Amino acid sequence: MRGDSLSIEAMNWCRELKDLKPVDKSILFYICDRYNLKHGYAWPSISRISRDTGWVGSTVTKALRRLEKKELIVTYKQFYPSNDSWASNRYYLPVFGDVPTPGKKFAVRGGFDFEGAWDTDLE
Fold first, then answer.
1. Phi-psi category of 56—alpha, beta or left, where left has phi over 0 and alpha has psi -120 to 50?
2. Which of 14, 47, 61, 114 is the most exposed place for a label (fewest CB within 10 A)?
């Protein structure tokens, strides 16, 4: 667990959801666990979700699409401004806060410090 109260609240919310395929629920639960209270979204890559959950990448992608269709998550693209390449997506949980305007593209700013915390001052 991430240790912040919203992440725990999000996981409890997910746990109570009914009528989801087991794969969809496990992917949503993972996103809830990775939800960052400070930033208001989670940003694990498809490969990271796959590695941590045991589901293959194509299964993860299909589950994410179904979760979007049910409006349980909202996904936004991120890119690295240094070379304009794609980064991992941002996953918002609409039930827990504001979601940016559709169609927006986000630049990744910052990096992980030596203690593993995200620091927006690192570039």
1. beta
2. 114
CA–CA dist 40, 6 (Å, integer): 10
| CB within 8 Å of 89: residues ≥ 6 apart | 43, 45, 46, 75, 76, 77, 78
DSSP state, 52? Answer: H
Which tokens in the block code for residue 58? 């194509």
Fold for domain 5-119?
A: Arc Repressor Mutant, subunit A (1.10.10)
Among 1-5, 13-17, 90-94, 112-116, the least confident range: 112-116
Q: pLDDT, tens digit, for every residue of 67-110?
A: 999 999 999 887 777 776 777 888 999 998 878 776 666 777 65
Q: Phi and psi of 40, rounded to 5°?
A: 85, 20
